[in-house]
TrEMBL record:
Its EC number is 2.7.7.7. The keyword NADP does not apply. GO terms for molecular function: DNA-directed DNA polymerase activity. This is DNA-directed DNA polymerase. It comes from Lysobacter korlensis.
Length: 392
């Protein structure tokens, strides 16, 4: 039961998947061989996929899970579970080929063999077409579970062969309650973290448990609120890029070193020893993987900054329109109100559009510095216009 209990605000989706896990194999009215779980970032797509997998693999077969199966699924060690996840920009075709080979095995201890692909939207068209063949003719008792932000992120041919389960954004109060229960966070901190994370569970947990994450977010908003000119915008873009780069480096650097040491040990190379020429290609492949992961980590960090800025200018717009809605950044309401008084609603809408464009450009491989500078120019524009007005 614990697997289902960790999911909040998704009872409708849980009911569908629990009923499917309790169905007899072959009962097509309830159970199907391929599923697509969609929902906004932080809604719990992966958590739901693994809870469903644990229920499918549980010996009881009644839609619930048992502790032993849950532990194996959490550790990704269950013999009938295969998982494909990536921290890089795309899922490679070789990774999918390997997963497809694994899907051909019959279940060894359970009723099903479960194949999970997290971030299925990161597959290219060619890779997706390879997966499509497996979905068209799946082996008996093999279940595919794909996760993506929306069904529009996958090829229409794949969408036509999966059953979709859509998740909703959990409420701020539900996320805060989860942080209190699971992490022992005090109510005030949990509520602020849930609100500022906009109900993104993973980000809310990070804000609630890491003071440096809260400081980074506060510095980001303060920096942008202080922009008054084009030079300010250019300098702010450079600073934000430095913050995102440092954050990404902190996340990946220690892991990269550990992976390299493990690779050297597995190749029989002593610490500090020279790598034989015949083995250098393997280390080169590892380094390329790490570079791709670093690129993904930097993009994710920049996107988190842009999402925070989007919440800021959404709040400014709400204050300008005198909307009776609670602010995401309630803790800095006075700063938001000052910014709202210094510009017009159309200015705030322009900045929101610029942020959305910057997110698209960075995801499309535009140089992050250029995308951030162009976006922050829109923040400076109202102040430039005010400075250009003739004085009485």
């Amino acid at each position: 039961m614990a697997g289902w209990d960790e999911l909040i605000g998704q009872q409708e989706a849980i009911d569908v998947l629990r009923a499917a896990a309790a169905a007899r194999p072959g009962d097509a009215s309830v159970m199907t061989h391929s599923w697509l779980i969609t929902g906004p970032p932080g809604s719990g797509r992966s958590n739901l996929a693994f809870a469903f997998a644990a229920a499918l693999l549980s010996p009881a077969g009644n839609g619930d899970t048992d502790e032993a199966t849950e532990r194996q699924v959490d550790a990704r060690t269950h013999p009938d579970l295969a998982v494909l996840s990536t921290e890089r920009v795309i899922i490679t075709i070789d990774e999918v080929r390997s997963l497809l080979s694994s899907s051909q095995f019959s279940p060894s201890v359970g009723r099903y063999r479960v194949m999970i692909i997290e971030d299925a939207d990161r597959m290219t068209e060619r890779t997706s077409n390879l997966l499509l063949k497996a979905l068209e003719e799946p082996p008996p008792r093999t279940v595919w579970i794909l996760c993506a932000p929306s069904d529009a992120d996958l090829l229409p041919t794949i969408r036509s062969r999966v059953r979709s389960v859509r998740l909703r954004v959990p409420s701020v109060s539900d996320v805060a309650a989860l942080l209190e229960r699971r992490n022992g966070i005090d109510a005030v901190t949990a509520l602020r973290a849930a609100r500022e994370a906009q109900s993104h569970i993973g980000m809310a947990q990070r804000l609630a448990t890491h003071p440096e994450a809260r400081e980074r977010r506060s510095s980001t908003l303060g920096l942008v609120l202080g922009i008054r000119s084009v030079p300010d915008a250019v300098n702010a873009a450079a600073t934000l890029l430095e913050l995102a780069t440092a954050d990404a480096k902190a996340i990946t650097e220690e892991r990269d070193a550990e992976e390299r040491q493990q690779a050297l040990r597995s190749l029989g190379v002593e610490p500090g020893g020279t790598v034989p020429p015949a083995l250098r290609s393997q280390l080169k492949a590892l380094e390329e993987d790490q570079k791709r992961r670093a690129t993904r980590s930097l993009r994710d960090g920049l996107d988190r900054i842009l999402v925070d800025l989007m919440s800021l200018f959404r709040d400014i717009l709400l204050v300008q329109l005198q909307a009776p809605t609670e602010l995401v950044n309630e803790a800095i309401r006075s700063d938001v109100e000052r910014a709202a008084a210094a510009s017009e609603p159309q200015d705030s809408l322009g900045v929101l559009d610029a942020i959305a464009t910057a997110r698209e450009r960075i995801e499309g491989n535009v140089a992050p510095a250029l995308a951030m500078e162009a976006m922050l120019m829109s923040v400076a524009r109202p102040h430039q216009r005010a400075d250009a007005r003739p004085t009485a």
